[in-house]
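Service request form, structural biology core

Requester: graduate student, group of Dr. S.
Request type: structure prediction, single chain
Budget code: on file
Notes: please return the result as structure tokens.

Sequence provided:
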Amino acid sequence: MPLSEARKAANAKWDKENMSTLACKVKKEEAAAFKEHCAQQGKTSNTVLKEFVLETIEKDSKKAGQE
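Core staff response, request fulfilled:
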């Protein structure tokens, strides 16, 4: 069932208030190679990048707790 316009608006409002986009520029051939790498893992580039960000935060949190 498709989302109603009200649901789309509510989702967009929530995203605006709670989410942020991280981005970086890379050469087109590097981007293509990364997307191919992700596809071989059965994941999207967004999923792989998000996993990396969360793992990095977790590792840093553990290090800070050990100090």
